[in-house]
Design brief:
The protein is of the alpha/beta class. The protein has a single domain (3-228), classed as Alpha/Beta hydrolase fold, catalytic domain (Rossmann fold). It has a 6-stranded mixed β-sheet, sandwiched between helices. The protein has helices at residues 41-52, 76-90, 98-112, 123-134, 152-155, 176-185, 210-228, and strands at residues 3-8, 14-20, 29-33, 56-60, 116-121, 140-144, 164-170, 190-197.
């Protein structure tokens, strides 16, 4: 359904991005932020899904600055490799990858002609939270089990747009004490806790939970309909 294009970040860096377009006029744009496994088959399928629901979907390669063309599976070895790329990106001087996400937001706004939301999974969930707090041109943000977003430095951020957060009650990367601290600090964030594991949205991995994934997606689409319409 989609194709890869090149975006240009503010510093001139070219960023590969998967773009999926809806059949008719877009209802708006949705930026889809990858896990630590690259813009792989699963993330492309997620983008295609939002396109089927009427949005122009853009999934930028947030590893581009350290390793272009990353497409991993979900084995332990893949996870270790992905963690390495993520650590390298997190170590980049500011603004680092955030300017690449801004380029995707700008492209989605220009190409769709409408409002733009952002959704991200795992590390992409953390980046989605940061984007909601620091970037321009967004109207809604939906982080899924953002590893690290319940750390004190992230909790201290203030979102500029409405946020819907999907978290789970058996998540080694987002422990419940952190979830409670986040909830207390951000009563304005609509938060849902699912009886599932980290990665429950991804049907390519063992942690997939069909019921939780379906419910979270229904809530996400309703949230986007409210804020991007």
């Amino acid at each position: 359904m989609g194709q890869f294009i090149d975006l240009t970040a503010a510093d001139g860096q070219k960023i590969a991005a998967y773009v999926a377009e809806p059949a008719g006029s877009p209802q708006g744009g949705v930026v889809v932020l990858q896990e630590i496994f690259g813009v792989n088959a699963h993330i492309r399928e997620v983008a295609d899904g939002y396109a089927r629901d009427g949005y122009l979907a853009v999934a930028p390669s947030t590893f581009q600055r350290v390793k272009p063309g990353v497409e991993l599976g979900y084995t332990d070895a893949d996870m270790q490799e992905g963690f390495g790329y993520k650590s390298a990106v997190e170590a980049l001087p500011a603004p680092g990858v955030m300017q690449d996400i801004q380029a995707a937001i700008d492209y989605a706004a220009q190409k769709s002609g409408g409002k733009v939301g952002i959704v991200g999974y795992c590390w992409g969930g953390l980046l989605t939270w940061r984007a909601a707090c620091t970037l321009n041109g967004l109207s809604a943000a939906v982080p899924y089990y953002g590893g690290g977003m319940t750390q004190p430095a992230e909790i201290a951020r203030t979102p500029k747009v409405p946020v819907l957060a999907h978290l789970s009650d058996r998540d080694q990367y987002v422990p419940l004490d952190g979830v409670e601290a986040f909830k207390k600090a951000h009563p304005e964030v609509e938060m849902h806790l699912y009886p599932a594991q980290h990665g429950f949205n991804c049907d390519h991995r063992g942690a997939w939970d069909a019921d939780a994934a379906r419910l979270a997606r229904e809530r996400t689409l309703a949230f986007f309909a409210r804020h991007l319409g």
